[in-house]
Amino acid sequence: MPQPTERPVVRLRPGRRGRERAPWHYADEVVLDRRTRAIPAGAVVALEDAERRPLGAAAFNPGSKIALRLLDPDPAAAIDADWLARQIGRALALRAALFDAPFYRLAHAEADGLPGVIVDRFGDVAVVQPNAAWAEVRLPALVEALTAVAGVTTVVKNAGGRTRGLEGLDAEGAVFGAPLDGPVEVPMNGATYFADLAGGQKTGLFYDQRPNHAFAARLGRGRAVLDVFAHVGGFALAALAAGAASALAVDGSAAALALAERGAAAGGAAERFEARKADAFDAMPALGAEGRRFGLVVCDPPAFAPNKAALEAGLRAYERVARMGAALVEPDGFLVLCSCSHAADLARFREASLRGVARAGRAAQIVHVGGAGPDHPVHAELPETAYLKALFLRLA
Amino acid sequence: MPQPTERPVVRLRPGRRGRERAPWHYADEVVLDRRTRAIPAGAVVALEDAERRPLGAAAFNPGSKIALRLLDPDPAAAIDADWLARQIGRALALRAALFDAPFYRLAHAEADGLPGVIVDRFGDVAVVQPNAAWAEVRLPALVEALTAVAGVTTVVKNAGGRTRGLEGLDAEGAVFGAPLDGPVEVPMNGATYFADLAGGQKTGLFYDQRPNHAFAARLGRGRAVLDVFAHVGGFALAALAAGAASALAVDGSAAALALAERGAAAGGAAERFEARKADAFDAMPALGAEGRRFGLVVCDPPAFAPNKAALEAGLRAYERVARMGAALVEPDGFLVLCSCSHAADLARFREASLRGVARAGRAAQIVHVGGAGPDHPVHAELPETAYLKALFLRLA
Fold first, then answer.
1. Which helix (H) or strand (E) holds B167?
2. Cβ contacts (< 8 Å) between B392 and chain A: which residues?
3. Which residues, in sequence order, are bridge partners of residue A176?
């Protein structure tokens, strides 16, 4: 690692006032010349504003649209194993205040002072997504810090993140420490989930929906529950643990449904659990035609509007999901509609969802609006990165 | 009560397309002539749009800015004791799904199909705020329905609502059924609160902060907690119940603090509880000067920006509270900032709060953003009435 004394200086272009505390800077905000272009991707530089005032130590990547990521307000800060251990220690302290068991998102990138780095913890296993070049080149130190500070025995490098390509990084995963021995058991909201950390979707399990799982589970007590886009059974298993009469999980992935089934069995709820491998847009009308109705319907689809270009089509898809889901809700039952689309803000998503519900001929009360759990903190300068929305409705 | 057959017709003015499903209509949206002006305040009318299409049965008040409040999509629906019992029954069913004990907001006005009517329930006691003329003239039927459906033995009429004057209603309270015998004991989040339903602020206790009390209480475990604008100890007592090392409640009302003290004693936490009667803006700098620091500071002030005219001054007050509160937070401690201002939306409130925190020289992570509890549902056509914001920050 370069010593602070030999750290290159990179300067912001003029006219960027108010962006001094920003956690990152795009390439077009930065003075890029032959010297800076020669700085290797992932190097730490001393960042200055256009008037040469120091802004801090930043990670630089001349090949990325996000050219600079602020690491430390001290421009001379050593970004070494000790520094990584301090950042992880602070992130860990927040989770220790929030949770009783070591199952959570341990580091949520910029908001936890680790730009571009996601760490999900599953007991003794940490899954790292080093989605920025600075972290990729420091992976051994990151693994060491996670092992030392969090006490994990296995660190999985997940290189499946969509943004790695933009940083010039490959998609090759790795496992450090003790090898994985099948899916990991994850206790959450009284249920037991199984997360396939080697081959699973993203990091095998989504922690962000935890408070929404809990809220829905309460509403589902004594009711028939339908979990559409169920993945490994996030909503279904929490509902069964809380006392749902039954839960039907619909997903397109047989592998995910098999893990959901295993979770239901581990919770002693195998007899109340049913899985259906199907496309959600086919399954919902089919269930309607079969005369099936539910006291609680949850639709947690993939991001239909991941970016601005997909916004209008995405909103139409959310409206369609809402309409189809609403048709399956018993009178005075509940409908939970989720969106993890960055491009669709709460107002637009709510509007599309309520339009869909109205088209199904149902009147709605908004009982609750949930977001991502607190192990997904948000950077003070990036409040708009709160991407997850869960709309809890009661339908007359 | 007028029979449907003799129900007068009131019509919307042209050009109000898209407002057909609105829960209320302002006087300037309505055709007002000598005939309609003669309809008594609180009468039920058959509402039609400008093209004479029926929109439903509505409560009419020619003397109010809100001239019409939609009661039922059926223009001939009898708005009688049975109708009230059905509305209350539906509201009750939602709370039964949400809570194990009968302590909650039982009816939240438009969102529960009871326009202008607030009902808070404290076990056997219901506190009704009939803030619209239609409910005021039907109070005996409302009391009867509450008694029959919810099984309460006492109904308190609270006529202190600010909006009653706009409806031409007086401020005279009343008690129906069994008389009140001192403050009522309210179990919530593991703590015991005391609510003075006869003389207390608003309805004696705010249920809307319940989930935020719970979230803060978890963060306060093992920490010294400061509850500023504490009222009857909402945050302080929940924190003590969850295991806070200590809690200091600051409020300007000695009566409220006495109830908080009583709650702390009832929870066996009298020795960890301290109360200070003071103005918050004096108390916070004073605590700083005394060298007091806290692991969790909560500031839940009254609405500084209740309306648009008060917005700018209100935001400055929120910024000041944030700055003063942040100065009292230990390194890596938590700051919770609340706003119940309708005029300040989340974005403006968050901006003012984070500016205040930055002025105190502290860096913040946004850990969680909370709203009002689910016993405060929101009408699908009025999503902007979600007024309560609670910002949970960790400060480096």
1. none
2. 374
3. A155
Q: Which of B366, B368, B377 sits opposite A367 (nearest CB)?
A: B377
Is the minimum CB–CB distance between B219 and chain A shorter than 8 Å?
yes
Q: Which residues pair with A275 in a beta bridge?
A: A249
Query: Is A378 within 8 Å of B363 when comparing Cβ atoms?
Result: no
**Residue A2 — pLDDT band, cuts 50, 70, 90?**
very low
CA Rg, chain A, in Å?
Answer: 23
Tokens 């936890």 — which residue? A112
Determine the distance in angstroms separating the CA of A291 from the nearest CA of chain B, rounded to an integer. 24
Residue B153 has phi, psi (to 5 degrees) of -105, -15
Candidates A340, A372, A390, A391; catalytic one: A340
Nearest to A167 by CA among A33, A7, A24, A6: A24
Size of interface A-B (CB pairs under 8 A): 86
Residue B356 near residue B326, CB atoms below 8 Å: yes
- Comparing CA positions, the residue from B386, B390, B69, B70 lying closest to residue A366 is B386
CA A151 vs. chain centroid, Å, equals: 23
- Could you report the per-residue pLDDT of A147-176, keeping only the tens digit for each? 999 999 999 999 988 888 888 898 889 999
What residue in B sits closest to A352 (Cα-Cα)?
B380
- Within a 10 A sphere around the Cβ of B204, how many other Cβ atoms? 26
ipTM of the complex as predicted = 0.94
**pLDDT tens digit sequence for B313-360:** 999 999 999 999 999 999 999 999 999 988 889 999 999 999 999 999
Cβ contact A366–B380 (<8 Å): yes
Residues of B whose CB is below 8 A from A71: none
Active-site entry in B269, B340, B343, B372: B340
Sequence-distant (≥ 6) Cβ neighbours of residue A105 within 8 angstroms: A95, A118, A119, A120, A121, A207, A208, A373, A375, A376
Question: Are A220 and A295 in contact, with CB atoms under 8 Å apart?
Answer: yes
d(CA B48, CA B51): 8
pLDDT in tens, A311-358: 999 999 999 999 999 999 999 999 999 999 888 899 999 999 999 999
Rounded to the nearest angstrom, the minimum Cα separation between B100 and chain A is 10
Exposure pattern of B161-196 as b/e (b: 16+ CB <10 Å)? beebeebebeeeeeebbeebeebbebebbebbbbbb
Tokens of A305: 């509007």
DSSP one-letter code for B64: S
Rounded to 5°, angle at Cα B123 from B117 and B126:
25
| DSSP-based three-state secondary structure for A6 | helix
Based on the residue annotation, tell me whether B338 is a catalytic residue of this protein: no
Per-position b or e across A265-298, b if 16+ CB within 10 A of its CB: ebbebeebbebeebebeebbeebeeeeebbbbbb
Distance of CA B297 to CAs A210, B109, B188, B212, B356, Å?
A: 25, 32, 20, 13, 14
pTM to 2 decimal places: 0.94
Distance of CA A146 to the CA centre of its chain: 19
Which one, of A363, A362, A367, lies nearest residue A392 by Cα?
A367
What sign does the dihedral B158-B160-B165-B171 (CA atoms) show? positive
What length does chain A have? 396
User: Do residue A97 and residue B218 have CB atoms under 8 angstroms apart?
Assistant: yes
Pair of tokens at residue A31 = 């003075």
Q: Which two tokens stand for residue A83?
A: 């520094």
- Report which residue type is found at B382: L
Contacts (Cβ under 8 Å, ≥6 apart) of A317: A301, A304, A305
- Taking only the tens place, the pLDDT of each residue in B157-186 is 999 888 888 888 988 899 999 999 899 999
3-class SS of residue B140:
helix
| pLDDT score at B342 | 86
Nearest to A272 by CA among A309, A310, A236: A236
